[in-house]
Every structure is written in structure tokens, then in C-alpha cells.
Design a protein that fits this description.
mainly beta; elongated; Immunoglobulin-like; Pectate Lyase C-like; single chain; 5-stranded antiparallel sheet
């Protein structure tokens, strides 16, 4: 009987050893990342939550003595280990060949700095007498925060700090908001920029004024529809955008009705509108003058509806199908009625396009210009020294010295790397080079002076 008892004891011993914890300092442990980096985090606004995994690659359980923030409770970073939120979590068990998640968030307290500042800390993982470290880094930024803000007096925004908007922002009727060069405006998903008065934006080539969504983390900063857009209401007038960048919105600029003054309701010069989910510019029976602008990769780049008065000079309007925006609609569509309203009335249309490019690739669009006329209202659409893509003849249009279906030969378009360079510097034989006509607008998007025979599009070679 004694041999049998010995066998049973040995089986129990080996079973316990196999199912027990590995205590050797040579035990292996790995993490899915050795550094977590957070993009700009605004003060008083928490970051997204990032995470990494801790792997036990041993054939026995591993007990981690502690996972702790080196900065302790005063650290701007917060951690959560498998549902336990604390600066230090002890005695964490990981089954053999298993893993756990560590979640990390950062909250930035306001400081006196007007410049971005760096926040650093580290997470220590202690096991079997060993230490493994994961580094943490974030860029903090003080900001001016507005929620459901109404600008009811003439106001100037400076570039000292960025503006972060939630709820909405509205420029009241009869009031003017001026925005200085270099100012950055970040808007939440629920925050349209409403202009019932006047918006004056005076950026420069080196310090443009930027309108973008407030999600700056890598998974969201390049996504369209991150914020609603800029809306110029019926009472708005005398708006000016110079060297502005509008990106990643649901709709870029929506301009409604003709202003009471004889001047264009919106003048936009040397500006960029891109990565807009629905439409870069929607105008409804309005009056817009645009020069040397780049409008690219929008669901509908320009949609002019229910007539109005428009002049676009030296603009590049282009779309390339990519992961974010499907190129399914023409880059330019013009209507003298409301296309989504059954039985819509019509209104006179006068639209002039000079030295403009209308081009698209990577989709199912044959004609990048579509003009739709109904009823007996006057309809005048002139394309003077333009370059455009179209399979068919474009009805209701007058073309003067224009170029059809010749690729503009942009410098570099690499969709997979999100590179879109619409210059012609590397392609002096582009059909757009020296193919334009002289206009009163003497400087291109780079503030480069136009030659006597200007190039077509927003850039001069």
C-alpha cells in the first residue's frame, strides 16, 4: 500500500506545482506597447482612453505584485487595471498564457502657459522582483472654452490660445466677429458655427485660421463629420475668409440667401476646404466670390442650389476616393431649384468660373460638372479658361477656351499615405500651366504672384 500512497502524494505535488504561481525571477512578461503617447489634450477636458495589454507567456499563473503610476495620486494620468481604478493596484493574477488590459487616461489642469506643454509619467509593473516600465506622454494645451455662446457685441478673437466650442457658437445679427491670423478653433460634434451677423477671418499663408473638430487623437483627427460646419444665415452679410482652413466637418460652408447689401454675402480667398463628409460649400440662392481656393475630397465639393450669383476664380476643385470619403458625386453641381424639394420653385442663376479645375478620380463619376435647369428662370453658367473632366457634353453651360479631359498632372497624389499636393512644380508640361486668363486676383494660394498668363487652378507654378 505504501507505494500507492507515494504515487498519490507525488501526483498532488506536481498538480499543485503546475497550477500554482511561477515565482522565478526568470519568468517572462511582455506588454503590447512600451510607450503610450497622447496628442494635444485641452485643459479641463479629459483625453480619450488608451490601453495596453500585459501578457503572461508562462505555463503557470503569474502574480504581479503591483502596477502603479510613478507619479502617484498627483499624476495627470489615471489608470484602470481590469476594472480597478487606482494609482496603484496590487496582487494582480494573470492565468498562464493569458493577458490583462491596463487603461490610461490623462486630465490636464490649467496653467499659465500659452504654448503646448509636455506631460510625462510612467507605469511600473513589479513581478517576481523585476520591474517593467511603460512610458506615458501627452501634450497639454490651455484653451478658451465656450458652450452655447452667443456673440452679442463686436468681438475680436486673438491667437493667444485656441478656442474650444461645445453646444454651439452664434454671431448675433448685426454683430461682427473678427478672427486674427494664427487662431485655431476646435468644435465639438454638437457645435455648429452659426453666423447671423458678420464673420471676418484674416489669416496669412504662414498663420492660417483653422476650423476643425476637437478630437485630435490619432483615431479621429482625420475623420470627416467631426463637427457640423459653418452656417451663414439669412441676416448674415459682408463675410470675409482669407487664408482659412476648414476641415473634417459634416458640411464646410453653408451660405443661405442673398444679403441685403450689394456686396457678396461671402468672399473667400486663398483658403482650403477639405475632408468634408457632405459638401464643402453649399449655397442656397446666395452670392459668393471665391478666389485661389482649394476644395478637395468632399462628398460634394461645391453645390449651388436655387439660383444665385457666384464667381469662382483660380480654384482647384478635386476629389479622390479614399477610406474616408467615397467619390460618388460630381465635384460641382449647379441647380436653379432645390434638388431635394419636390415641386421646388426656381430662381435666376448667374455663375462664372474662371481659371478653375474640376477633376475627380477613384469613383464612379463620369461628369465632374453637372448643371440642372428647370422652368423658365434665367440660367447662365460660364466656364472661362477652365480644365474639367466630363464624359458627356455639359448642357446649359458656356465654355470659353477650356480644356476637357486632360489630366492636370498634380505634383503628388498618394491616397494610401493621405498625400494630396495640387501644385504643378514637378510637371511643367501640365496642361494647366500658363493656360489661364489674367484676372484682378494677383496672388495664388501660396501668396505667389501670378504671371501675365496665369496657371489654371489655385497654385502658380
Amino acid at each position: 500500500m505504501k507505494p500507492a500512497v507515494t504515487i498519490v502524494i507525488l501526483l498532488i505535488f506536481f498538480s499543485c506545482s503546475k497550477d500554482g504561481f511561477i515565482t522565478s525571477p526568470d519568468a517572462s512578461l511582455s506588454t503590447s506597447s512600451d510607450t503610450l503617447a497622447f496628442d494635444t489634450v485641452f485643459t479641463n477636458a479629459g483625453s480619450i482612453t488608451q490601453s495596453f495589454k500585459v501578457f503572461n507567456t508562462n505555463n503557470q499563473k503569474l502574480k504581479i505584485s503591483s502596477i502603479r503610476l510613478a507619479g502617484g495620486p498627483s499624476s495627470p494620468f489615471k489608470i484602470n487595471v481590469d476594472g480597478v481604478a487606482s494609482p496603484q493596484i496590487t496582487n494582480i493574477e494573470i492565468n498562464k498564457n493569458d493577458s490583462i488590459y491596463v487603461f490610461v487616461q490623462v486630465n490636464v489642469d490649467p496653467t499659465s502657459s500659452t504654448l503646448p506643454f509636455i506631460l510625462r509619467d510612467s507605469i511600473q509593473i513589479n513581478y517576481n522582483g523585476n520591474n517593467k516600465w511603460v512610458q506615458l506622454q501627452a501634450y497639454g494645451q490651455n484653451a478658451i472654452f465656450y458652450k452655447n455662446k452667443i456673440i452679442d457685441k463686436n468681438t475680436v478673437w486673438t491667437n493667444t490660445l485656441p478656442y474650444v466650442i461645445s453646444g454651439s457658437i452664434k454671431v448675433d445679427t448685426g454683430k461682427t466677429l473678427q478672427i486674427e491670423a494664427g487662431t485655431k478653433i476646435y468644435l465639438h460634434a454638437d457645435a455648429p458655427f452659426l453666423v447671423d451677423g458678420t464673420l471676418i477671418v484674416r489669416g496669412t499663408k504662414n498663420e492660417p485660421v483653422i476650423f476643425a473638430g476637437d478630437r485630435l487623437d490619432p483615431d479621429y483627427k482625420d475623420l470627416p463629420a467631426g463637427w457640423p460646419g459653418i452656417y451663414f444665415g439669412n441676416t448674415s452679410e459682408n463675410n470675409l475668409l482669407v487664408h482659412s482652413i476648414i476641415k473634417n466637418a459634416y458640411q464646410g460652408l453653408v451660405v443661405q440667401s442673398i444679403a441685403a447689401t450689394p456686396d457678396p454675402k461671402l468672399q473667400i480667398s486663398r483658403s482650403i476646404i477639405h475632408n468634408i463628409y457632405d459638401a464643402g460649400i453649399i449655397a442656397i440662392n446666395s452670392n459668393i466670390q471665391a478666389d485661389n481656393c482649394l476644395i478637395f475630397n468632399c462628398g460634394k465639393n461645391i453645390s449651388l442650389q436655387y439660383g444665385g450669383h457666384y464667381r469662382f476664380v483660380n480654384c482647384t476643385v478635386a476629389s479622390f476616393g479614399n477610406l474616408y470619403i467615397s467619390h460618388m458625386d460630381p465635384v460641382l453641381s449647379v441647380y436653379n431649384y432645390l434638388p431635394e424639394t419636390t415641386g421646388s420653385p426656381t430662381s435666376p442663376l448667374n455663375a462664372v468660373f474662371q481659371n478653375c479645375i474640376f477633376w475627380g478620380e477613384g469613383g464612379s463619376v463620369d461628369n465632374e460638372i453637372v448643371l440642372n435647369k428647370q422652368g423658365s428662370s434665367s440660367f447662365e453658367a460660364t466656364f472661362d479658361h477652365c480644365l474639367y473632366k466630363a464624359k458627356d457634353e455639359i448642357p446649359n453651360a458656356t465654355f470659353i477656351s477650356s480644356i476637357k479631359n486632360e489630366a492636370p498632372m498634380f505634383d503628388s497624389i498618394n491616397i494610401s499615405k493621405n498625400i494630396y499636393d495640387f501644385h504643378f512644380n514637378n510637371h511643367p508640361n501640365s496642361p494647366a500651366v500658363d493656360a489661364g486668363m489674367a484676372t484682378p486676383f494677383l496672388y495664388d494660394l501660396d501668396d505667389k504672384k501670378r504671371e501675365a498668363k496665369p496657371d489654371i487652378g489655385c497654385y502658380e507654378q
